[in-house]
Amino acid sequence: MDMSRYEYRKLVDDVADAVVAKLAKLHELANDKPQYVTLKEAATIVRRSVAWMRLHKNEFPHKKLGDGAKQGQLLFLEDALYKYLQ
Question: Is-contact 50 43, C-beta < 8 A?
Answer without folding.
Answer: yes
